[in-house]
Automatic annotation (TrEMBL):
<feature type="domain" description="Luciferase-like">
    <location>
        <begin position="23"/>
        <end position="253"/>
    </location>
</feature>
<dbReference type="InterPro" id="IPR050172">
    <property type="entry name" value="SsuD_RutA_monooxygenase"/>
</dbReference>
<keyword id="KW-0503">Monooxygenase</keyword>
<dbReference type="GO" id="GO:0016491">
    <property type="term" value="F:oxidoreductase activity"/>
</dbReference>
<keyword id="KW-0288">FMN</keyword>
<protein>
    <submittedName>
        <fullName>LLM class F420-dependent oxidoreductase</fullName>
        <ecNumber>1.-.-.-</ecNumber>
    </submittedName>
</protein>
<dbReference type="Pfam" id="PF00296">
    <property type="entry name" value="Bac_luciferase"/>
</dbReference>
<keyword id="KW-0285">Flavoprotein</keyword>
<dbReference type="InterPro" id="IPR036661">
    <property type="entry name" value="Luciferase-like_sf"/>
</dbReference>
<dbReference type="InterPro" id="IPR019952">
    <property type="entry name" value="F420_OxRdatse_Rv1855c_pred"/>
</dbReference>
<dbReference type="InterPro" id="IPR011251">
    <property type="entry name" value="Luciferase-like_dom"/>
</dbReference>
<keyword id="KW-0560">Oxidoreductase</keyword>
Length: 287
């Protein structure tokens, strides 16, 4: 079982001038401890469901570029990129840039986007849910084409590219892996079966059901279900309830989950040090 660190808040410590050194130290500790991945959110306002919208928030890919310079081993990605925030051709180039500068450690995490307050606030077009999923599928197709030998045009319903040239190519071979986040059974998990190397789900009671749905989509699409890596965002606080956290991780491992992501619930340096020392060695025993 691999462990990922999902760095979702820039509020602790509260002084803005400490954001940079705290992020850098946390990333280095995680990298040295053996965390498999480091992810950030793709938000410009903090999520209102968890904290005030005006809490500090940094742009995702700029942040990961900084983290790339602080680390050597961890996979770097956004959990997950909102499809409406960047034109697909530019997104493919951004992820390629991260991959090249990190030495082949980028992962494209992507989803349909949902946070309308920040979209309206910052002038991002708000479109119906159905159209967002159409755009998500075209974005996946464009990224795959830009990471292939095909530099020709792309003609879709929502996006038209005259040429899909991207030089240099990613260092990761054959390309950066694609992770699709979300548990929507009709559309999201279908797109996972069609395009993704991994999925990201919440560690809730219906996880087994979501994986069964994904398996059904794989059968219908002719895709090998086992070729898709299953990852989960953990809801159990690892340091407050370590036994419950480890028990849940073991249950997920039995379902085929190979990576769990944890989110700091205290000072991120303290959190990462303690999780790395107390829990990460135990997770590596799960198969």
């Amino acid at each position: 079982m691999k462990l990922g660190l999902h760095y979702w808040s820039f509020t602790t410590p509260p002084e803005p001038e400490l954001i940079t050194p705290t992020l850098a130290r946390t990333a280095r500790i995680a990298d040295d401890a053996g965390f498999a991945s480091f992810t950030v959110m793709d938000h410009y306002f903090q999520m209102e469901a968890v904290a005030p919208a005006d809490e500090p928030m940094l742009e995702a890919y700029t942040t990961l570029g900084f983290v790339a310079g602080q680390t050597e081993r961890m996979t770097l990605g956004v959990l997950v990129t909102g499809v409406m925030y960047r034109y697909p051709g530019l997104l493919a180039k951004i992820v390629t840039t991260l991959d090249v500068l990190s030495g082949g450690r980028a992962r494209l995490g992507i989803g349909a986007s949902w946070y309308e307050r920040e979209q309206r606030g910052l002038g991002v077009p708000v479109v119906p849910v159905g159209e967002r999923f159409e755009r998500l599928e075209e974005t996946l197709q464009i990224c795959l084409q830009m990471w292939s030998e095909n530099n020709g045009p792309f003609e879709g319903r929502h996006y038209r590219l005259a040429e899909t040239l991207s030089v240099p190519a990613p260092i990761r071979r054959p390309r950066p892996p694609i992770m699709i986040g979300g548990g929507g059974e009709k559309k999201t998990l279908l797109l996972v079966a069609r395009y993704a190397d991994s999925c990201n789900l919440f560690g809730t009671d219906d996880l087994r059901h979501k994986l069964d749905v994904l398996r059904s989509h794989c059968e219908a699409e002719g895709r090998d279900y086992d070729s898709i890596e299953k990852t989960v965002v953990m809801r159990v606080p690892p340091l407050d309830e370590p036994d419950a956290f480890l028990a849940a991780a073991q249950e997920y491992a039995a379902l085929g989950v190979t990576e769990v992501q944890v989110t700091p619930d205290r000072h991120p340096v303290e959190f990462t040090e303690q999780v790395g020392e107390r829990l990460l060695p135990k997770l590596t025993d799960f198969a």
